[in-house]
Amino acid sequence: MKQLITNLLAAALLLSATLVQAGGGAHPIPLESPKISVLDQSSLQRGADLYAQYCMGCHSMKYLRVNRAARDLGWSDAEGVAHFQHIRNGQGKPTDMIETTLNPLTAKQAFGKVPPDLSLEARLRGTDWIYTFLRSYERAEDGSLTNKLFPGVAMPHILEGLQNSLPPVEFDAAVADLVNFIDYAAEPAKPQRLMMGWWVLGFLALLIVLTYLLKKEFWRDVK
Ligand code: HEC
Q1: How far is the CA of 59 from the centre of ligand 1 (A)?
Q2: Ranges in the chain, pLDDT < 70
Q3: What is the count of structural domains for the chain?
Q4: Quick one: pLDDT at residue 196?
Q5: Domain that includes residue 102, residue range
Q6: Does residue 213 fall inside a structural domain?
Q7: Does residue 200 sit within a domain?
Q8: Contact 163, 151 (CB under 8 A)
Q9: Pocket test for ligand 1, best of 31, 53, 58 (most atoms within 8 A of CB)
Q10: Closest residue (by CA) to atom 15 of ligand 1?
Q11: Hey, whose CA ends up nearest to atom 28 of ligand 1?
């Protein structure tokens, strides 16, 4: 039995060491963390609008439906269509997925790659990676563009105009909102899940008080 426990512990240690290695150190620059929460609905709304304006031209979110996102963000179906389907010239429906109008073949010709679907991007890369990636473009003196986190990336510096028009703090805040929306998209039930956690903790706290009072009542005459 003792042997088994020691072996299990050793395995757990080894696994966590491997995970830590896989998570950190592999990036050319350190990742930065945005201060975001999917419970902040106005941040999600701002992020969704930035996404619709700057990203949807190339990237789809094929697992996120317009009316689902609209409902979670506090918008009506019609507002959802207005926010997410503006590139469809009035043809968009609330039941559509949030999809780009860019033809994959045209994209391949233009960028050498088809822009990947971003529905699950926050699970794939993590929010820190996306936040750092979007803020790591640099234009050299000769006009050439590099991304310090993703050298040789085929995506242009889409947010360059925004970055040049805002003070750095505000640009970072805008990117954080955008990343918040991408995080929400990867798990639309996350806000409910987090809220449920607080309800459960509150319920348990109440239960502790009640059981304590009950215990006192039961033991009152015993002593
Ligand atoms: C002009 C088209 C275009 C636009 C607009 C665009 N992207 Fe991209 N994006 C691409 C292409 C192409 C790639 C693939 C790059 C590669 O693999 O080299 C990419 C890759 C990415 C990746 C990395 C995917 C991965 O895991 O490898 C992320 C994250 C991303 N884009 C986010 C965004 C966000 C957020 C926006 C809006 C601010 C945006 N993109 C706007 C074309 C675009």
Answers
A1: 7
A2: 1, 14-25, 223
A3: 1
A4: 96
A5: 38-186
A6: no
A7: no
A8: no
A9: 58
A10: 154
A11: 130
